[in-house]
């Protein structure tokens, strides 16, 4: 195994919070914190292709560090600059990032009768080799972070990845993937299982490279009905939470906290607390106080969950949203169980100083007197 000797961690707040410990203040980070709302992102990226940036460890680590450098002590975690769609790429699919439009698969997997279906199932994917550039970016970023904050690794959830592979990009109708789950449920499950196993190995190798906490993004969970979530998302998310610790142990690695973010699946919060993840991410449609009640005395930490759109508002409205969140998560009474974030990724056109104000307000309103 490689010998990574990384600089000592100076701020382990998010790791202690994720393991359910009582903490001095809630840790803070935001999904997509490295991205298009930052002018320095555009500057560093130049006219390079998005995936070219992901594949270049030097560029990916520079982009990962940008929010840490800009916001200094206000942020408690970094997340490696990459994308959930690197798994379909590792499986042999072509994925392009089209400027201002998002991901595009020129040759999506349309039906289980496609030759591509059998190929995808039969191909032995070498996650170590295919995604080596991600591990290199993680290791380099850990060095450059100098122990300032822990580094997140991540992957897409099997359901969300299959949606992209079948739809070929973003969609409002979900026509193709809905056809799959209702017409070809068994074929859907077979491919979901294949993706799931790749996710486990990919996350384990990210930890081996230096990731200190991991998040599984199920961005399209909310497109499923409660009954379909039970069939097509939950078992695979639970498989990851069960098998990643086993794989880490096999590799002789320390356990890391695991976060699941099942966006839109508010009906499944109770089930998500039993899947084996230490942290469950909430989108902004959840009421924090109700969510805390649903968790009950289970050892699950909640993450979230302000409406990212609140950052388009005034400072007064940001203060109001933060106040509601701090009260809702019962911070003053509990002093644990909450990682502050937004309810989804930060959106373009947010002014970086308004995000700074959001961070400052969380710090101010959770300060121990
Ligand atoms: O700061 C970070 O969070 C790290 C990097 C990160 C990116 N994508 C960079 C990115 C992470 C964690 C992701 C995850 C991701 N990618 C998700 C899950 C999170 C979510 O938002 O639900 C999803 C669904 C994707 C797929 C994806 N990648 C889409 C739909 C898009 C285009 C639309 C959009 O919101 O940008 C991307 C592109 C992408 N991924 C960009 C960045 C910085 C923008 C690329 C650009 O235009 O420069």
UniProtKB/TrEMBL annotation:
<dbReference type="Pfam" id="PF01208">
    <property type="entry name" value="URO-D"/>
</dbReference>
<feature type="domain" description="Uroporphyrinogen decarboxylase (URO-D)">
    <location>
        <begin position="27"/>
        <end position="36"/>
    </location>
</feature>
<protein>
    <recommendedName>
        <fullName>Uroporphyrinogen decarboxylase</fullName>
        <ecNumber>4.1.1.37</ecNumber>
    </recommendedName>
</protein>
<comment type="similarity">
    <text>Belongs to the uroporphyrinogen decarboxylase family.</text>
</comment>
<comment type="function">
    <text>Catalyzes the sequential decarboxylation of four acetate groups of uroporphyrinogen-III (octacarboxyporphyrin) to yield coproporphyrinogen-III (tetracarboxyporphyrin) with the formation of intermediate hepta-, hexa- and penta-carboxylate porphyrinogens in the heme biosynthesis pathway. Acts on a number of porphyrinogens, but only coproporphyrinogen III can ultimately be converted to heme.</text>
</comment>
<comment type="pathway">
    <text>Porphyrin-containing compound metabolism; protoporphyrin-IX biosynthesis; coproporphyrinogen-III from 5-aminolevulinate: step 4/4.</text>
</comment>
<dbReference type="InterPro" id="IPR006361">
    <property type="entry name" value="Uroporphyrinogen_deCO2ase_HemE"/>
</dbReference>
<keyword id="KW-0350">Heme biosynthesis</keyword>
<feature type="domain" description="Uroporphyrinogen decarboxylase (URO-D)">
    <location>
        <begin position="152"/>
        <end position="168"/>
    </location>
</feature>
<dbReference type="GO" id="GO:0005829">
    <property type="term" value="C:cytosol"/>
</dbReference>
<dbReference type="InterPro" id="IPR000257">
    <property type="entry name" value="Uroporphyrinogen_deCOase"/>
</dbReference>
<keyword id="KW-0627">Porphyrin biosynthesis</keyword>
<dbReference type="GO" id="GO:0004853">
    <property type="term" value="F:uroporphyrinogen decarboxylase activity"/>
</dbReference>
<dbReference type="GO" id="GO:0006783">
    <property type="term" value="P:heme biosynthetic process"/>
</dbReference>
<keyword id="KW-0456">Lyase</keyword>
<keyword id="KW-0210">Decarboxylase</keyword>
<dbReference type="InterPro" id="IPR038071">
    <property type="entry name" value="UROD/MetE-like_sf"/>
</dbReference>
<keyword id="KW-0963">Cytoplasm</keyword>
